[in-house]
Amino acid sequence: MSEGQEPGDSASRRLGEQRAPERTMPRRPQMSDLTPAPIHARIPPPGTVKAARAAWVLSFLAAALMGAIAYFDRDKELERLRQLINGMQQADADTLHAVASGALWGSLAVMGLVVLVEMVLLAAMMRRRSGVRWIQLGVLLLHGGATVLADAVLVDVAEQGNYLRGLLLAQLALAAAGLLISLLPGAERWFRATHEPTRRTLP
């Protein structure tokens, strides 16, 4: 025991150390706003929009079938194109093959590109982007030009020309029908409707 330190002082210090409470972390305060963020409810498309989508999908299927027929019959079609071009202007075999191949694959590529653009625009339209319909109108005009080109290149020289012409006209008519249906009042109300917010319930 050091000088000047009384026995009672050391005993009191040891008793205070034994009774000292353990330190705990303070509780995290609760959030002041317990209201969850609103969720925008998805408005289902009406029957008119579904009908427009179905018409476009059938148009895509008709285009795919037309392309498949032209592809599997490509050798015969190339031969007929070479004969047709040779009858119009005498040329060597390489030139005939190049021109015939360019006409065949070029017409199919143009049609495929137009259909691909229509598919992208349809996906955007189903996300309630109403302005896409006016872009579809411009693409529909291009679709008509691609149909005339494909008819001139494929139908007149193909064995299955009547089937190809029917598919070409069907896909153009279905695309036009899809656009017209999407402009009906029922579809217009769906495009103009605002999202209805809903609230999530806390667990």
SSE topology string: HEHHHHHHE
**Looking across the biggest beta sheet, what order are the strands in?**
1-2
Rg for CA atoms: 37 Å
Shape: elongated
Structural description of this entry:
- The protein is mainly alpha-helical and 203 residues long.
- 69% of the residues lie in helices and 3% in strands.
- The chain has seven helices and two strands; from the N terminus they run αβααααααβ.
- The protein has helices spanning 7-19, 47-72, 74-88, 93-125, 132-154, 161-182, 185-192, and strands at 38-40, 197-199.
- A two-stranded antiparallel ribbon has the order 1-2.
- Helix 2 packs antiparallel against helix 4, helix 4 runs antiparallel to helix 5 and helix 5 (132-154) packs antiparallel against helix 6.
- The longest helix is centred in the middle third of the chain and has 33 residues, at 93-125.
- The model is unreliable at 196-203 (pLDDT under 50).
Secondary structure elements and pairings:
Blueprint: H1 7-19, E1 38-40, H2 47-72, H3 74-88, H4 93-125, H5 132-154, H6 161-182, H7 185-192, E2 197-199
Antiparallel strand pairs: 1-2
Give me some keywords for this one:
7 helices, 203 residues, mainly alpha, two-stranded antiparallel ribbon
